Amino acid sequence: MLFPKKAKHRKWQTARKNPNKVGVASRGNTIAFGSHGLKAMEGTRVRSNQIEAARRAAKRYIGKTGRVWIRIFPDRPFTSKPSEVKMGKGKGAPEGYCIPVKPGTILFEVDGVSDEKAIEALRKAGTKMPLKTKILDRAKISI
Q: Model confidence over 97-120: pLDDT tens digits?
């Protein structure tokens, strides 16, 4: 799973969670490396294990010939307290890392395979994500 080598702070403050006020991505919203890309259509937090599951699904379908790029990196720690613990007694321990994704962000890119294979690989990767996705083609802009 993906996680940063070194973090300045063990715990981050909780950000706002209103999905209607997320805005749209102004960076990372164009296909830069591959011929096809997977675009996020809503805003949410994506955990590192979800990114890894999507990468595995896409890479397993593509095989050795194609290449998969991960365009997001989970650097935000999230915490949780054990179940059935009383209120108070401080913040929970860091449990893992996630990334807040805005609508329009390109999550994955694929190259080196046919159009049908790239579309199917990104479709399989999109099913592992906790948000709605769309498959883009660099030549056609959108499918």
A: 999 999 999 999 999 999 999 999
Contact by Cβ (8 Å): 103, 70? no
41: which 2 tokens? 């259509």
The reply to whether 19 falls in a domain is no
- Report the C-alpha gap between 50 and 108 in whole angstroms: 12
* 103: its two tokens: 């609508």
Q: What is the CATH number of the domain that holds 123?
A: 3.90.1170.10
Q: Please give the tally of structural domains in the chain.
A: 1
The answer to the question of residue 104 being in a domain is yes
In which domain, by residue range, is 71 found? Answer: 33-81+93-137
| 121 CB-contact burial (10 Å; exposed 0-12 / middle 13-18 / buried 19+) | buried
pTM above 0.70, yes or no: yes
Q: Which residues contact 13 (CB under 8 A, 6 or more apart)?
A: none
